[in-house]
Amino acid sequence: MQDSARLKMSDPVHTLKPQPTPRRPPIPLTIDDDCLDFAFPEVHAEARLSIAVQRTLRVPDDQATYGLPPGLGRFHLTNAGRLRGRRADWSESDTLLPMWQAEAAWFRFTSTTDYPFLVRMSVGGIDAITGEDFAQTVDFDAEDYFEVPEQPWLDGFRVDERSVRQFVAMPLGSGYTAAEQLVGSDDGAIRIQVTPLRASTWKERLAARRATPEPPADLGTLNFCPAPTSDSAMGLGAGGSITQSIASPLEPRENWAVGDTIEATLRIVNSDAWHDLTGSAPHHAPPTITEYQRYGYPWFEWYDDSLARRGASKLSGVKTIKEIGDGLGQTPLPDNPSFDPPEPHIVGP
Question: Model-level pTM?
Answer without folding.
Answer: 0.86
